Amino acid sequence: MAGAPQGSWTILETLRWTTAYLQEKGISEPRASAEVLLAHALGISRLDLYLRYDQPLSPEELANFKALVVRRRAGEPTAYITGHKEFWSLDFKVTPAVLIPRPETETLVQAVLEVLTKNLKTENWGLEVGVGSGAVVIALARELPEMSWVALDLSRAALEVARDNARQHQMAPRLHLVQADLLSALRPKARFALLVANLPYVPDPVWQQLPGEIKEFEPQEALRGGEDGLALIRPLARQAHQHLEPGGWLALEVAEGQAQEVKALLEETGAYDRVETVRDYWGIERVVRARRAVAA
To answer: Can you give the pLDDT at residue 51?
Structure first.
């Protein structure tokens, strides 16, 4: 790292140099990366960086920070370097065993809350398929305290991360984590008021074009959805109604361009009296939401 900070550098000087350095190396979000890594190295918040902008870094702090920058320069995602990612204004532990939560997935949480905030009973149960870090189900559990939850994932390592996050956010007593391939672990008569899923949906041709910091660091099994991206979503869409109570809701996150095909899959079952799409912050149809017909 030629020209890297040496000796006594202030927080602001270090931020400016690191942002320029990461930008020169082609790293995405160079300013945000610099802020998150420096705050992590100093054990303070990003806001504190600007409240204490003229504070000099000690040689030890500078050395620790430079080690983090080297990892970011190599493409390692900031969330894996710090071990944390914010989602729904909550802090979540993340490791390379789980997908890093994305802002667009907050649309999935919001889409559920729009239809499930009324008439819930204490005996209602929700189900997440593909729990990953637990970000979605834990966010929902905090917002819907009347419900208990089952969360499924094929990866044992991912379930351990989700378990740690459930404990951190005091949701463990209401969250039952089960290792399973899609719905295979459920009893035939198991019924839920909600089934939510953010399954792998990246089509193979799109996968080939993704940046290295995604392809080389995040778990492929949490991203790749086969040739058209629907290898896992398609069977779930065809079976989900079998595990929904009458009037229960299904919510699926999908990739850009997939919503209408998934909507058609759900309509083909004849099990739903309402099927609709929800757009994310960028106007993309990000969630397909459907209500199990009461008389079905």
So the answer is: 93
Q: Are 269 and 241 spatial neighbours (Cβ–Cβ below 8 Å)?
A: yes
Number of independent structural domains in the chain: 2
- Under DSSP, is residue 248 helix (H, G, I), strand (E, B) or coil? strand
DSSP state, 202? B
Asked if residue 174 and residue 59 are part of one domain, the reply reads no
Residue type, 38: L
Note whether 133 and 174 are same-domain residues.
yes
Q: CA dist 61 to 10, 202, 213, Å? A: 11, 39, 26
**Euclidean distance between the first and the last CA atom of the chain, given in angstroms as a whole number:** 64
**Pair (186, 236) in one structural domain:** yes
**CA separation for the pair 72, 81 (Å, rounded):** 8
pLDDT tens digit sequence for 198-240: 999 999 999 999 998 999 999 999 999 999 999 999 999 999 9
> Residues 181-189: what's their mean pLDDT?
91
Domain range spanning residue 221? 96-292
pLDDT at 296 over 80: no
Shared domain for 192 and 234, answered yes or no, is yes
Residues 6+ apart with CB under 8 A from 280: 104, 107, 286, 287
Tokens (6 digits) for 151: 């969360």
Do the domain assignments include residue 4?
Answer: no
| pLDDT for the residue 222 | 94
Do residues 65 and 111 share a domain?
A: no
Per-residue model confidence as pLDDT tens digits over 48-98 = 999 999 999 999 999 999 999 999 999 999 999 999 999 999 999 999 999
Beta bridge partners of 196: 128, 251
Q: Are 70 and 111 in the same domain? A: no
